[in-house]
Design brief:
With 263 residues, the chain is of the alpha+beta class. Helix 8 crosses helix 9 and helix 10 (218-225) crosses helix 11. The protein has helices at 21-27, 29-35, 58-66, 96-104, 135-141, 143-156, 158-165, 186-196, 203-213, 218-225, 229-242, 248-258; strands at residues 2-4, 39-46, 51-55, 85-88, 109-117, 120-128, 169-171. The strands form two sheets. The chain has a five-stranded antiparallel beta sheet with strand order 3-2-6-5-4, covered by helices on one side. The radius of gyration is 21 Å and the shape is globular. The longest helix is centred in the middle third of the chain and has 14 residues, at 143-156. The chain contains twelve helices and seven strands.
Amino acid sequence: MNKITSWANLDFNNHVFFNSVAEINELIQPINKYFGLDSFNYHKTFNDNSQIRLSNKTDWYKHYLSQKLYLQSIFELPAVNYSRSRIIWTNINTHSVILHDAAMYGIKHGVTIVEPNHDGYEFFFLGTTTSDSSVINKYLSNFQLLDKFIQNFKSANQNLLLKLHANKITADDWFDNKLKFESINDIDRYSFLTELYQYQLTPREIECLPLLIKGCTSKQIAEFLKISHRTIEDYVNNIKYKMNVVSKNELMSLLADRFALIV
């Protein structure tokens, strides 16, 4: 891992973060054709607060870093702040300066997809140079297709990502960003949905839900929650009863259906 005092001090002309434009442009052809998304910027914040970056709009990204706009972005915080999210840029009231400057480089409308990873969070900034704000409706209606693009990006570019991982950077002044990412945690999301569907689950039973959805066994859930295996089995039986299902397969099917947004 490399340490620098500021992202503004990065060697923009020679760093690996800025020399993959041709590969990115080839990759984004489908979303460019069907969504008009021709701007792709990516960064990942690891659990240790180091970062990697990638862009096909290098002039914009060099401006973003050299002008220290990362200190004004809600997407530049320690990984612990985030949850899986899809955010339309025009809905971010703290980003007026960033959006103004991005427009000077032809990037006008877009969406940020925030994806959890085992060692941090990834941020995909998909933008367009069109002035037609109606494209936002297309994003909202087709997030599943954009998610497929993200999956393909990660599977098709493993060698590139490994190269980036080998050049992780920590910038000292990055920690001066005092913004907050307003989101609710996963347990609160599950609590919301259990109340929405009027399942009278206890807090402990709710804690089991994300682990059940991930396919964890009762023993694994017990180890994670640090309670007995028998207690977990009681919780699972209670959940089945309260959700009016009989078998484990029925329960898994119901969870996949009603909690799919936060899987």
